């Protein structure tokens, strides 16, 4: 394997600085030169060494191995480079940040089938509704609604179109009646959601005559836990709101009933998203292929 040793020095500067710009300043070259040099090094090895977005840069698992090897004798470094170039089998730790409302992704079968097909990959799934830079936080990919994914990310559909749903237990409806219009919700006991304590409860979104609007319900119970919302609704504590797939099994068993269906149109669904287009790690490429099929 012919590797320009100057590119290894460039890579190590990026690894130590966590920034193309800072590495460029240290080396006395332009940021563009650093970016192009990193691309040549990755292309020659055939795998990504850093994950970069418009907001951050971090080492991939392969990049961490190479950075550690650069502190060893030259023979060890050569061995690591050759192993990285030859490593085309999916393996290693795959870290995912998944929104709690991605029911189809989190329900079990998709991840179970992936784990069975790729026993050398270890999955670490963090279920979170916090909004943050997945690259800076050390994740390989995330799953979210398409409408909230940053534009510099690549997005692969995980589901088809989704619909929100408003539900309540039959016992609640029998006691308090059913709302006939979303504005009636302000007179009902509601179970709401917020992604963090410092954020206002989510406003429930509807559409009437092709005009979108939302309702700021005043929840009697508010939580960031979808399961608590569901369990509270099943116990008759009030009306709640989430994606339709979350409630479907309970409605089919008669434990919950749909409400206000005429005001809930479909919208784009959930996507697996990740940065960078070239030299994807085999472990991430395997998940992308699994989701697509």
Looking at the overall shape, the CATH architecture of the largest domain is: 3-Layer(aba) Sandwich
Task: Give the count of helical stretches.
Answer: 11
- Give the termini distance in whole angstroms: 35 Å
- Name the structural class: alpha/beta
Q: What is the count of β-strands?
A: 15
Which ranges are low-confidence, i.e. pLDDT below 50, for 5 or more consecutive residues? none
Q: In percent terms, what proportion of residues is strand?
A: 15-25%
Helix content: 25-40%
Structure commentary:
The chain has eleven helices and 15 strands. The two termini are 35 Å apart. A hairpin with a 4-residue loop joins strand 1 (50-52) and strand 2. The strands form four sheets. Strands 7, 8, 11, 12, 13 and 14 form a six-stranded mixed sheet that branches. Strands 4-3-5-15-6 form a five-stranded mixed sheet, covered by helices on one side. It is elongated and about 75 Å long. The protein folds into three domains: 5-86, Arc Repressor Mutant, subunit A (Orthogonal Bundle), CATH 1.10.10; 92-159 and 269-292, Periplasmic binding protein-like II (D-Maltodextrin-Binding Protein, domain 2), CATH 3.40.190; 162-266, 3-Layer(aba) Sandwich (D-Maltodextrin-Binding Protein, domain 2). It is of the alpha/beta class and 293 residues long. Helix content is 37%, strand content 23%. The chain has helices spanning 5-17, 20-27, 31-45, 61-69, 74-86, 103-106, 109-117, 170-176, 226-234, 244-252, 282-292, and strands spanning 50-52, 57-59, 92-98, 121-127, 141-145, 154-157, 162-168, 190-193, 204-208, 211-215, 221-223, 239-243, 257-259, 266-267, 270-274.
């Amino acid at each position: 394997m012919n590797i320009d040793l100057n590119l290894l020095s460039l890579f190590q500067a990026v690894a130590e600085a966590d920034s193309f710009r800072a590495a460029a300043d240290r080396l006395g070259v332009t940021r563009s030169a650093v970016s192009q040099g990193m691309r040549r090094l990755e292309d020659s090895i055939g795998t990504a060494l850093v994950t970069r977005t418009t907001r951050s840069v971090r080492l991939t698992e392969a990049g961490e191995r190479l950075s550690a090897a650069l502190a060893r004798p030259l023979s060890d470094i050569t061995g690591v480079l050759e192993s990285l170039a030859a490593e085309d089998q999916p393996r290693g730790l795959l870290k995912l940040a998944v929104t709690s409302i991605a029911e189809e992704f989190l329900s079990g079968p998709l991840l179970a089938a992936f784990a069975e097909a790729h026993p050398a990959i270890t999955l670490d799934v963090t279920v979170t509704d916090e909004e943050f830079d997945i690259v800076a936080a050390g994740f390989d990919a995330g799953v979210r609604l398409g409408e909230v994914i940053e534009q510099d990310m690549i997005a692969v559909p995980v589901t088809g179109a989704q619909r929100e749903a408003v539900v309540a237990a039959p016992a609640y409806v029998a006691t308090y009646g059913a709302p006939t219009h979303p504005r009636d919700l302000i007179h009902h006991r509601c179970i709401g959601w917020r992604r963090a304590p410092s954020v206002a409860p989510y406003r429930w979104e509807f559409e009437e005559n092709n005009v979108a609007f939302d309702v700021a319900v005043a929840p009697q119970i508010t939580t960031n836990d979808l399961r608590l919302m569901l369990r509270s609704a099943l116990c008759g504590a009030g009306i709640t709101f989430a994606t339709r797939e979350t409630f479907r099994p309970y409605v089919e068993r008669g434990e919950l009933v749909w409400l206000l269906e005429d005001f809930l149109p479909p919208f784009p669904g959930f996507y697996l998203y990740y940065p960078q287009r070239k030299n994807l790690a085999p472990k991430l490429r395997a998940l992308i292929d699994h989701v697509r099929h």
